[in-house]
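FYI - complex with 5'-deoxyadenosine, inputs then prediction.
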Amino acid sequence: MSEPPFHPGSPRGLYVRTFGCQMNEYDSLRVQRLLGPLGYVPVSDIGEADVIFLNTCSVREKAEHKVHSFLGSLRRLKKIKPHLKIIAGGCVAQQLGEKLLDRFDHLDMVIGTRGVGSVGLMLQRLQESGGRLVCMPGEENGLPGPGGPEIFPRGGVTAPVTIMQGCNNYCAYCIVPYVRGPERSRPASEILEEIRRLEDSGVREVLLLGQNVNSYGRGLDEKSTFVDLLRRIRTETGIARIRFTTSHPKDLTDELMQCFAEGDTLCKHLHLPVQAGSDRILKRMNRGYTAAGYMEKIRRLRLICPQIALTSDIIVGFPGETEEDFTKTMDLLEEVRFDNLFSFRYSDRPNTSAASFPDKVPPEEAARRLLELQTYQADVTLRKNLAEVGSVRDVLVEGPSRASNGQMTGRTTHNRIINFEAPLSSCGQILGVKISFAYSHSLKGDVIVRPKAQSGRDL
Ligand code: 5AD
Ligand code: SF4
């Protein structure tokens, strides 16, 4: 099938669909940024696409199913538009490689997680060859390089910034070390440069990303710990707010806890996945801490920063989890009272050690436990939101609210979403908002002071 002629200046549509975590969202932004200079413009209507880039996720079985069914649904589109190029990137692509091409004969290219930086070159090769390609660079670190087009100014008030990738922890259930590779960090100078550029383009809040940000810096020539990096961002840039995810409880140091008490730039929210409350299960998961050890860290953190919001991840139905183990998880939730929780039913993932554990929990039992846990947490989350009513919070205005007409949306330092009346021009400002109403997933409020602090620099 011949390619329609491509004239410089006649843009081609690029449709990017992202599954999974914020790391994938960041990589999708990089893909858009890298393909822009080659004449590809992002389109939101898939029917206008000349190239479709799927950034895939395989962390849980359900996520992988979604990817497969979406890929399958593209077969019809490719039939009516044969020049369309369909590319799969991300974790499923890394995991299956060529097998993904075998499974979907309308798929044109598979790019592994370390190949994002080569997407432009690979797409050109694909267009020229007219064949199908697999790109699985083993050598590249998959992180954005210094300078170049990958460091992107972009519209928007908040922006993700990858600081490290990969993981060496090998939790028994987790596919990440196999699809993202070993841990590697970006030099601090590159991260600071990217943040300054984002700041120049109007970004006020950065979300520092990595599978385990606490271990940032290992193996770098330019010595830096995660705490050093946080302090440098706070003092060497004018960014108003910093968030980060994800942290591993075993690597959470007192020094890092202390950062939450050093001014307002670092948002007072920590996502600290505990996964389970039973020591037996934590050991089988290879998590490297006990429930009491986790609780002790929470206690110290709350002493240092009493208002801190805490969220976590839980897996229920891990192989061998008994009713008694599950009760220990529920006990831990009752003790901590997380502000919010992401909870999942265990699913086998290829290559992981837990996949070969014999004592699987029956799916209906795991589903029952998940429902019990989620029902409990929904009540806690709502109560915590209700407790916000009447208080005044600093809110970074992110843009028009999707849900309510004419309203703006933003987040409190505790990562609560809040909707309120404000002009469009308030976007990017930090406003004082008095909370008037609480829902299960968001708050409503009224602006009382505007605009408030314009810079979060608190030297
Ligand atoms: N089954 C269920 N949940 C999982 N997670 C990771 N691997 C699995 C799995 N095999 C969850 C963990 C992790 C979150 C991102 O996904 O809770 O923190
Ligand atoms: Fe997966 Fe564990 Fe690494 Fe997190 S720390 S990415 S759960 S292996």
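The longest helix spans residues 363-386. The pocket of 5'-deoxyadenosine (ligand 1) is lined by residues 59-60, 173-174, 273, 275, 313, 315, 344, 346-347, 349 (CB under 6 Å).
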